[in-house]
Amino acid sequence: MFILKNSSSISQVAQLRSPKFRQTGPNCTLSFWYYNYGRSVGAAEMQLLVDGLKQPTVLWRAYYNEGNQWLKAVIQLGRLPCPFQLSLDKISLGFYDGVSAIDDITFENCALPPPALSCEGANRFWCRGTKACIDSLLVCDLVDNCGDGSDEDNCNPDLQCDFENGLCNWEQDVEDDFDWIRIQGPTPTVNTGPLKDHTTGTARGHYLYMESSEPRQFQDKAVLLSPLFNPSGNGTCIFRFHYHMFGKEVYKLSVFQRTVSNTKGWLLWYKFGNQGNRWIRQTLYISSSKPFQILVKGTVGDGFTGDIGLDDMSFLDCTLYNGNLPTISTTTSGTSVPATLPMNNCTEEEFVCRASGHCIQMIQKCDFRPDCSDRSDESACVMEVCDFEDKNQCGWYQPDLEQMSGNYSIHTTNLFKWELGRGANLYPGQEKHCPLIDHTTCTEEGWYLFADSSNGEFGHTADIATPVISLTGPKCKIIFWNHMNGSTVGSLEVLCKTSNRTSKLWTQSGSQGPQWNRAEVFLGIRSNFQVVFRAKHGVSYMGDVAMDDITFEDCSPLVIPGRPCTSEEFTCANKYCIPKDSLCDFVNDCADNSDESPAI
User: Fold this and answer.
1) Do domains 11-108 and 560-599 have the same CATH topology?
2) Among 435, 438, 426, which Cα is nearest to 388's?
3) Where are the alpha helices (DSSP H) in 272-425?
4) Residue 568: how many CB atoms within 10 A of its CB?
5) CA atoms of 192 and 209, how far apart (whole Å)
6) Which DSSP string corresponds to 221-283?
7) From 2.40.40.20, 2.60.120.200, 2.170.16.10, 1.10.3660.10, which CATH number describes the 157-316 domain?
8) pLDDT per residue over 285-326, tens digit each?
9) Cis, bond preceding 231 (omega within 30 deg of 0)
10) Do residues 398 and 418 touch, judged by C-beta distance below 8 A?
11) 441 alpha carbon, distance to own chain's centre
12) For the domain bounded by 382-403+415-553, which CATH number is listed?
């Protein structure tokens, strides 16, 4: 179907209407191929027209000439319980010269789940009216997965929030930089943020979003605080939410858990970068021996196309705590680790959890997953995220300096080595080859790590390493920002070191310009290894190597869950569960390659 016009008529509209559909299931998507080419071809948009709603919902827009090519559009419709139509509108304003066309329209996964004769198992729910058998994780998640609403009956409203009537019992943090905004329809900036909410799938519904336009600056943070929850006991508290991260300059969304009120807690989950124009469901399993709170933090990227959305946040198998979290003195650590080990029956091949005396396998120590309730198995390890603020090196250490520390005849002052620095401490002229601002805060007060080339000589190396990492998962990667500027800057390498072998994973040499540059190195599944950053001295002092914001992403190893895999997951041959969208993506997500099998 195409529109071909060469005319100067004003404000003409071409419309293509779909048949009327009765309803859709929660995973429904619409895809089509479109062609929008010509000097003044203009804009086109797909609208959703729902019975009973006067206001149409814009689902997709093409703003301008997109070249002599067919392009694919994928639209997330989701659960639409009322009859609706789709309208493809093409508007001519003044001179029009071009061709617009559409082809291969496809609806996928739009049916509701079929009725079942039986529905057995602790992890299944039998819908009352439609008799569909669905995963119990879909119960009380603010989505009508059954088609009759029975999976959303008798739910505790204090454990759910769709933001249709405010923030419910969630609160804005007062210690952050700005607040999340409740909104209907699209965000104010084009090419970023949602066009509609997740609850209703229309412009009538409400959701929260984080605005990334001015006056917001890079790394500004907006934090949302959950109500307080009781300890999870022997079970787990399940947190479900939907997020939207669309835009070229989207930065980061992260979720933290805390048991002390004046700390930021520890990281449970995070996601970086543009994830496409769609709402994505995320499920987190939370264990805690103490009352706890969840923090959802959005971080602004380096431009205005970085809006992030949140909607339909719910908890399952959790109970609210009627009290306050304790506070700690800012001079003490949030986790107290006893100096002596508690009574235990652990062997020499096992690690003793410091607070409880519980025994875990040594391979579970330093694997980016806390297996002890007090997180003591991850306390002497490299931190998952390190920004070097507060002069904290996050577990990174310099092996050469530690070997020299016992030899008082050797002075380390003039050695080529890694050290903490900031722009405020630079001497005049040093900013020509050393960062004036850090990457985290973009200020002269922010800290970073650098190898000072005014020490040492040409060819000298400086290593900084992690403690031994026991085990990583199949998607593990390290992301870091580096600054290499100056006429005689040397090189930076990322090495993987085991007991008998050191291999080079990444290298960069020479001046890269006066800015921070992002680098990403894939690690994958590895065991009993160290990551080493090695700086090599150039021919003179005119060129320092610096690093900031080092992050280990998706590095916790796979765990066989004590439950069957859900309908949204694939069961690996080794019984691990992975998201179905990780199938056939050329990545060994299962650790046994069964997710990449041609037989799937």
Assistant:
1) no
2) 438
3) 399-404
4) 15
5) 11
6) EEEEEEEEE---TTS-EEEEEEEEE-STT--EEEEEEESSTTS--EEEEEEES---SS-EEEE
7) 2.60.120.200
8) 998 889 999 999 999 988 899 999 999 999 999 999 999 998
9) no
10) yes
11) 20
12) 2.60.120.200
Beta bridge partners of 587: none
To the nearest 10°, report the CA torsion of 398, 400, 403, 406: -90
When computed from its CA atoms, the radius of gyration of the chain, rounded to whole angstroms, is 27
CA separation for the pair 179, 100 (Å, rounded): 41
- Whose tokens are 């264990």? That residue is 287
What's the fold here for domain 11-108?
A: Jelly Rolls (2.60.120)
Q: Which CATH architecture has domain 560-599?
A: Irregular (4.10)
Residue in 66, 69, 70, 73 with CA at minimum distance from that of residue 42: 66
Query: Which H, E and C letters describe 540-593, residue by residue?
Result: CCCCEEEEEEEEEECCCCCCCCCCCCCCCEEECCCCCEEEHHHCCCCCCCCCCC
Look-up: residue for tokens 């030899």? 407
Q: What is the pLDDT of residue 4?
A: 59
Give the residue ranges of the chain where pLDDT is below 50: 330-339, 405-410
- For 11, the token pair is 């404000």
Residue boundaries of the structural domains of the chain: 11-108, 157-316, 382-403+415-553, 560-599
76 — alpha (psi -120 to 50), left (phi > 0) or beta? Answer: beta
- Residues 246/307, Cβ–Cβ less than 8 Å: yes
Can you say whether residue 180 is alpha, beta or left, with left for phi > 0 and alpha for psi between -120 and 50 degrees? beta
Using alpha carbons, list the distances in angstroms from residue 449 to 184, 216, 366, 462: 43, 26, 23, 12
Report the distance separating Cα 166 and Cα 183, nearest Å.
10
